[in-house]
Amino acid sequence: MTEQNEASRKGRPTPSRREAEAARKAQMKRPLSRKEQSQRQRAARAEIRRKQQEAMNAGDGKYLPARDQGPVKRFVRDYVDSRWNVGEFLLPILVLILALSVTDQPWTPRVANSLWAATILTVAFDTWMLLRGVKRQVVERFGAEHLKGVRFYALLRSTQLRRLRLPKPQVKRGAQLR
């Protein structure tokens, strides 16, 4: 046999006419009970969720939720993922501040308050720089009409730990965006 014939083989025998008609009728037949109908719907929803989860992990745009779809959102994800964001370290820093504030040393309240103020100022400045850069880049690349929801999307993504972001980051830190 030729390579083309081997590649196009389906790996199973062709069903008889009786089997094919029975399968078609069974597929068209409505479920007899509510329980069976809900099981089919649950299985269909589970399959959609599985495809969405795979897309989130792979960054495939086809099965992403509506909030993550489109070239503008993809660019914003890449923009946020290509830079260091202070916001992603906010949760670990806050845990450190909490641990410092519950210790019984006389110097810890002063250090915790100073660290708290420095964290707020640093996160605010970094967020301002991020949002300014995202706005400028989106307007330059896609036009001003694509700004709706983009800055909030960038803000939420920048405050998540990089390992926990979904869809998974597709660019390395410091990468130049095309």
What descriptors fit this protein?
178 residues, mainly alpha, 2 domains, 7 helices, 0% strand
Task: Note down, in words, how this protein is organized.
This protein has helices at about 5, 15-30, 35-60, 70-80, 90-100, 110-140, 150-160. The mean pLDDT is about 90. The chain is an all-alpha fold and about 180 residues long.
What structural class should be given to the helix and strand makeup? mainly alpha
User: What is the number of helices?
Assistant: 7
- Provide the number of structural domains: 2
Number of E strands: 0
Low-confidence stretches: none
DSSP helix fraction: 55-70%
- Approximately how much beta-strand content do the residues carry? under 5%
Largest pleated sheet: none
Radius of gyration: 26 Å
N-to-C CA distance: 47 Å
User: What is the ordering of alpha helices and beta strands?
Assistant: HHHHHHH
General shape: elongated
User: What is the typical, i.e. mean, pLDDT?
Assistant: 88
